[in-house]
Amino acid sequence: MEWLKKLIEKHTKDGVLNQEELFKEINQEFPKYAVPKDQYNAVAEAKKKLEKDIAERDKQLEELKKIDADGLKAEIERLQQENKVAKEKYEAELKNLQLTNAIKLALNGKVYDEDIVTQLINKDKLVLNEDGKVIGLDEQINSLKESKAFLFLPEKQDNQPIGFQKVGNEPSNNQQAIDDAIAAAFGNLQQK
Predict the structure, then answer these.
(1) In this structure, are residues 84 and 69 in contact, taking their beta carbons and an 8 Å threshold?
(2) Helical segments of 34-135, H only
(3) Where are the domains positioned within the chain?
(4) At residue 192, does pLDDT exceed 60?
(5) What is the pLDDT, as a whole number, of residue 163?
(6) Average of pLDDT values for 131-156?
(7) Which tens digit of pLDDT belongs to each residue from 70-85?
(8) CA-CA distances (angstroms) from residue 5 to 14, 18, 31, 34, 125?
(9) 91-100 — which CB contacts under 8 Å span 24+ positions?
(10) Alpha-carbon gap, residue 137 to 125, rounded angstroms
């Protein structure tokens, strides 16, 4: 985290932090020091799955020690078929997990409920290439924006202030008018 402290110090002048420039530089430097959450989750899930598979293989090997030679051939063929099916299932689950993480990452901060919008996206039409990019996702998101715009957060405009916004007339800077308005609110009107 030393790199982050240096960036904060670099973008602080006279006790004022330039947040915009700081965030730009953090976004550039972050991949050098950390792994993105979706990539970490995919690797963690793969690790859990592989540990489970290794335990299953060890169990299978122990069972093979107990089988005779003729039964061994049949058992090997059965296990090879099971392993093939398990591998295909694992690859499908891993692809589904990677697609789901990529979809949620693309929708993060843009929709009211990521889970609902994720279910509306057809994963069969998405292609996951070697470098982790999802092809076809932007088209589906844009299509959903047009057909189901109520699911998406309104896009922030640069000139629109964030937070509470003033509604109504501008107050006057006349101190007498302000005092009269306060007195009227409390019923302390004086006749002049």
Answers:
(1) no
(2) 37-65, 69-107, 114-120
(3) 1-34, 35-151
(4) no
(5) 61
(6) 85
(7) 777 888 888 899 999 9
(8) 16, 14, 16, 15, 43
(9) 93/49, 94/42, 94/45, 94/46, 94/49, 95/128, 96/123, 97/41, 97/42, 97/45, 98/38, 98/42, 98/128, 98/132, 99/123, 99/126, 99/128, 99/134
(10) 9
